[in-house]
Amino acid sequence: MPQKVLEVKDLYVYFYTYAGVVKALTGVSFDVFEGETFCLVGETGCGKTVTSRAITRLIPSPGEIVKGQILFHRPNGEVVNNLELPEEELRKIRGSEVAYIFQDPTAALDPLYNIGSQFTETMLAHGSGPKDEALRKAVEMFTSVRIPDPEKLVKRHPHELSGGMKQRVVIATSLSNRPRLLIADEPTSNVDVTIQAQLLGLLMGLRRDFGMTILLITHNMGIVAEVGDRVAVMYAGKIAELAPVVELFERPLHPYTQGLLRAVPNPLRRIERLESIPGTIPNLISPPSGCRFHPRCPYAFDSCPKEEPELIEVEPDHYVACLLPPLQQRRKG
Would you tell me how many other CB atoms lie within 10 Å of the CB of residue 186? Predict the structure, then answer.
């Protein structure tokens, strides 16, 4: 069995606002294994990005990690809890052993500095040799992400590049220190479908070439089907279902997952009208009691507003948080 790279255990993240306490994450738990692409999927506002930022304590004020554990398995076999590390130690992990590709490449690049300066800054911050060596590495990495004329690119500024080219620069910069875990937060959300396909193919090739593990954040089930190994479906700050990708698409068990998949066009079936999930995402300042999905669930019954479901294993490696009796009866063990 592959080694674990990351363990997220019982994670709670709250945002203390003037309107009230936003319970952004409530008891989120999952593992990520070496060499896989693990996907977090769900509607906007479900907690995907907050989860990814919490891994290296990048939660902005007024947010706070209330409790939980983020166990990172380092290459030497050491296991550290990122929530307990001193800031100086955590800085050594960020950008080196754990790297990020953020949603908006324009926001990730400083308009005042050329591309070469920004790439070398990342390498020099982690002691990766002199500046000349870092610039040589920049050209090498830009070549690996299929950027033409990388020698000229290092002298350009972000405003001179297209959106797809900026995203390639961000990907190359993230990989500059050969991270053990790459967190990609909707890396294709700002490009058209043609560039999206190219970037996804690029990421999967780099994963293979560099032996990386990828945590992919997306709301696109098509992307999950194309590149994912395992997937966790999030709803209102909790995980509703977690399973291998093929298993989830063939046998979705949670009503929310079933609703998401019915809203995706299927080229193999004739569908006159796509279905939608009724209702709206709940307010996480005062979320629904019991199961958070019950106000929108077509199968809700008396226990749903009263009892909060646990994420239980109902089939091998297939976990569901639902109170429906058939699922509870299939609970393993």
Answer: 19
The string of DSSP letters for 103-130 reads: S-HHHHS-TTS-HHHHHHHHHHHTT-S-
Q: Are 134 and 127 in contact (CB under 8 A)?
A: no
Q: Are 136 and 119 in contact (CB under 8 A)?
A: no
d(CA 104, CA 81): 29
pTM equals 0.89
- Average of pLDDT values for 20-27? 94
Tokens 């239980």 — which residue? Answer: 312
Alpha helices in 176-231 (DSSP H): 193-210, 221-227
Count of beta carbons in the 10 Å neighbourhood of residue 61:
7
* pLDDT: which is higher, 210 or 245: 245
- Check residue 146 and give its pLDDT: 82
> How confident is the model over 273-284, as a mean pLDDT?
83
Residue with tokens 């992400």: 145
Query: What letter would DSSP give residue 158?
Result: G
Joined together, the tokens standing for residue 189 give: 């959300």
Q: Cα(71)–Cα(191) distance, rounded to whole angstroms?
A: 33
Q: Say how far residue 296 (Cα) sits from the centre of its chain.
A: 25
Note the Cα 260 to chain centre separation in Å.
18
- What is the tens place of the pLDDT at every residue in 233-269? 999 999 999 999 999 999 999 999 998 888 777 666 6
149 pLDDT above the threshold of 60: yes
Q: Where are the beta strands (DSSP E) in 90-149?
A: 98-101
How deeply is 173 buried, as exposed, middle or buried, from its count of CB atoms within 10 A (0-12, 13-18, 19+)?
Answer: buried
With a cut of 80, say whether residue 297 has pLDDT above it: yes
